[in-house]
Amino acid sequence: MRNELDSKDIQILSLLLNNARLSNKEIAAKIEIAQSSTHDRIKKLTQKGYLKGAFAQIDQKKLGLNIEVILAIKLNKQHRAIIADFIEKASQLPGVIQLFHMAGNSDFILHVAVKDSDELRGFILDRLSTLDYIQSTETTMVLHNERVNNIL
């Protein structure tokens, strides 16, 4: 599908990936095409599914979320219903930033932000361990998190 994109489409996606708040006027100026053409291209990129949404990057520390962890979770059963149940429940837990369903040693990876180690302990013991299909969890602390957008 990527081969149906031209260089201007890729420039638009790249600009929006790094700052989804850019106006149509700003994008048009940066890639040197008319605003109407930029608008039409963004509309087509959205209709074709290249643009799925716009997201805000929040400073978690300002919210008091001082600890980030990666939780590797192994399930004791591999059934569609269990996987769907876990995805539904985990995606609703406070503090979950991102959820990945994995192939390999872990079945799921959760990226989680919490206030402190007590909140992390509660997250694991009071929320995750109540799900009887979780076999094990492994916690790794994130020392630095930086969003890098080098996919285009």
TrEMBL record:
Q: According to the lineage, what is the superkingdom?
A: Bacteria
Keyword vocabulary terms for this entry: DNA-binding, Transcription, Transcription regulation
Q: Name one GO molecular function term.
A: sequence-specific DNA binding
| GO CC annotation terms, alphabetical | cytosol
Entries under InterPro entries matching the protein: AsnC-type_HTH_dom, Dimeric_a/b-barrel, Tscrpt_reg_AsnC-like, Tscrpt_reg_AsnC/Lrp_C, WH-like_DNA-bd_sf, WH_DNA-bd_sf
Q: Which Gene3D superfamilies match?
A: 3.30.70.920, Winged helix-like DNA-binding domain superfamily/Winged helix DNA-binding domain
Q: What range(s) does the HTH asnC-type domain occupy?
A: 5-66
Q: Which Pfam families match?
A: AsnC_trans_reg, HTH_24
Record GO biological process: response to amino acid
Q: What is the designated name of this protein? A: Lrp/AsnC family transcriptional regulator
Q: What is the lineage of its organism?
A: Bacteria, Pseudomonadati, Bacteroidota, Flavobacteriia, Flavobacteriales
